[in-house]
Design goal:
32% of the residues lie in helices and 23% in strands. With 279 residues, the protein is an alpha/beta fold. The protein has two domains: 3-222, HUPs (Rossmann fold), CATH 3.40.50.620; 249-278. The strands form two sheets. The chain has a nine-stranded mixed β-sheet with strand order 9-8-7-10-6-1-4-5-11, sandwiched between helices. A two-stranded antiparallel sheet has the order 2-3. A hairpin with a 4-residue loop joins β7 and β8 (160-166). The longest helix is centred in the middle third of the chain and has 18 residues, at 95-112. The relative contact order is 0.16.
């Protein structure tokens, strides 16, 4: 039977990001959160194939208790089971510690109910590392297709998947045995409108809550800050530059506009700097 697992993350809405000028850390209090967009498209791809093949979808999310809203959004989109992984011991985890926890959880689910594939968004929009999907897949010893833009075929009888991935120069079509891991671009699937039954069901859905002790006893030196070799020293905001001057050619005419541009360049001293550098 087709069983897809999608790992999702609740992230700050990047249109409302603020940084504390004293600590250099992101200010998360009062900032609205959303389902990571790449994860939403990965889930949409899983839903498409569930509709074709039957079966079910499990979503997991590691985060604070408030991430229950993200799980419910996934149920609204068509997932069948939601697992929230939350504990103070997991706080501050880098990608290594995060992938360790997620891989352990996924392995437990896979042993209880075998998986066909595990999907991730290509990256989270808050960290942009693109490391968790590959980190989880290598721990699970699953073949991995990164930057997937389309799933062409899933053959459960012969146990293989054919997917297309994007590279800098061209697209590759890869056939891989199941279960497999995929990190997904937004092109992989359009996010559907929720059906009314899913919408109603999601409003009262209560996800399973797994902690650092239940149902898996995690060694505390491998999770959270203690298990994270990566430390963020400081986060800063890029310097904001003022907008450039707009010269309206329609109003001034081409000739005067060009003269105005050259006059401003000459006044800025840029041409003198370039000439000096050429010597």
């Amino acid at each position: 039977m087709f069983h897809a697992l999608v790992a999702v993350k609740q992230v700050p809405d990047t249109t409302n990001i603020r940084i504390d000028p004293e600590t250099g850390n992101l200010i998360r209090q009062g900032v609205p959160t959303i389902l990571n967009p790449y994860d939403a498209h990965a889930l949409a791809a899983a839903v498409e194939w569930k509709e074709k093949l039957g079966g079910k979808i499990t979503v997991i999310s590691m985060g604070p208790p408030s991430a229950v809203t993200t799980i419910r959004e996934c149920i609204e989109m068509g997932a069948d089971r939601g697992v929230l992984i939350t504990a103070r011991q997991f706080a501050g985890a880098d990608t290594l510690a995060t992938s360790y926890v997620l891989a352990s959880i996924i392995q437990r689910i896979h042993e209880e109910d075998p998986l066909s594939m595990v999907l991730f968004g290509k990256q989270a929009i808050d960290g942009d590392t693109a490391q968790v999907g590959p980190g989880v897949s290598i721990r699970l010893d699953f073949p991995l297709i990164t930057y997937a833009v389309k799933i062409h075929e899933i053959n459960l009888e012969e146990n293989y998947l054919v997917a297309e991935r994007k590279t800098e120069s061209y697209n590759e079509i890869i056939r891989t045995p199941l279960p497999a891991g995929l990190t997904c671009e937004k092109e992989i699937a359009h996010i559907p409108y929720a059906s009314l039954p899913n919408l109603v069901y999601s409003l009262r859905y209560e996800p399973e809550v797994w902690t650092a002790e239940t149902p898996i006893q995690f060694p505390l030196d491998q999770v959270g800050l203690k298990g994270s070799p990566t430390w963020v020293f400081k986060t800063t905001q890029p310097e904001l530059h003022t907008a450039g001057e707009v010269i309206n050619v329609t109003e001034m005419g081409v000739g005067p506009a060009v003269k105005s541009v050259f006059a401003k360049i000459e006044a800025s001293g840029v041409l003198k700097s370039v000439a000096g550098g050429a010597k």
